[in-house]
Design brief:
224 residues, alpha/beta, five-stranded mixed β-sheet, 9 helices, 5 strands, elongated
Length: 224
Amino acid sequence: RYWRANLLLVAIGSGTAVYALYVGGDFWPAFRFLTPALPVLAIGAQHAISLLPQRRAVVQRTAGVTLVGLVIYGSIGPSLQLRAQHRNDSLISLQGRLEQGRRMRALATALGVKDPLYLDPDIGGPAVAGLRVLDLGGLTDIHIARFGWYPAFFRDYIFKEKRPHIIRTHSTWTRTSRITEYPEFHELYVAVYSYTDALGLHGEFVRRDLVAPGVEGTPTTEPP
């Protein structure tokens, strides 16, 4: 109803779309970069529904229903498509990642680290939990985003420059980054838990100098 409010909604929606185009989209088929536009789409759907009773012409009513349908599909269609493609996989739960981040904070506190640096490919929950997160996936770390996991860079960046207090790696991220294959990894880190499969060594690891001398991690076959 007011041009300033409409301008704000258009700016949010178009800005989100331009950003997604600029970065080339999301490598994971979940359309995550379009998330900020979902509230705008919801407001648009509500506004279109509110206009339906005010329109008597069949053409206008049909156009309104079509608009509502497009907005609804634009909001939930990608999620339904992702669910159909990954029927046998469980979608990543933010709540689960948040609890994991809190557990990492508790681990750091137990180790006497007040401001831990946490390396993990799943950064949403840990970031919300208040951890300083070093993104193994490279989405929020400009250096990894630029140079990827090129060995000459990645090795020095992780083990000499950043030296995260806690490292967590799993699934394809282990194979892609090859982080557990570097000699420095085994020299500097000890497992809280670990397991090995066809993709490599996975688990949670803390810097060896944070634990008492002589204490070794106890690898397990499955994560807790």
